[in-house]
Amino acid sequence: MKHITDDEILAYINFELSDDMNSNVENHLAICGLCRSQVTFLQELTNEWENPSTNSDTNLADIIMEQLSETELKKLTNSNSSNIKYLHFVLAAAATIIFSQLDVIDHIITTSNTAVGYSSKTVYKTSSSIEKGLLYLENFSIKLQFKNGGESK
Q: Are 66 and 36 in contact (CB under 8 A)?
């Protein structure tokens, strides 16, 4: 059985599939629990991405702040810049691990690739329109020259 790709699932979630493809995806989802769970996961991830929850029971900043004692915090703020750089490095590493576990990076890349695709299509359509306009102007100029007996004004 061929499973639905993440790109197809995202297109399904965003109502971007043709009627035939949409019907094929729904038929597959009716019989495939693995793909259904992937749809649920990607829907939740997309919803969280578009509307981040702000009333989380466990705020990451609160957890980190609880683990740092007041004296350690004072040492970090009063110490040299290498300790602050180390703290930034540790926090960046923690954020990287969290993002990788939640597949946030993949979603960002997919979203970016989609935006680039739309941009490319827009640039292509714009350049095509400009080329048509230039061709029209060139033909118009030739007609004017012909009307004026070959003289260009």
A: no
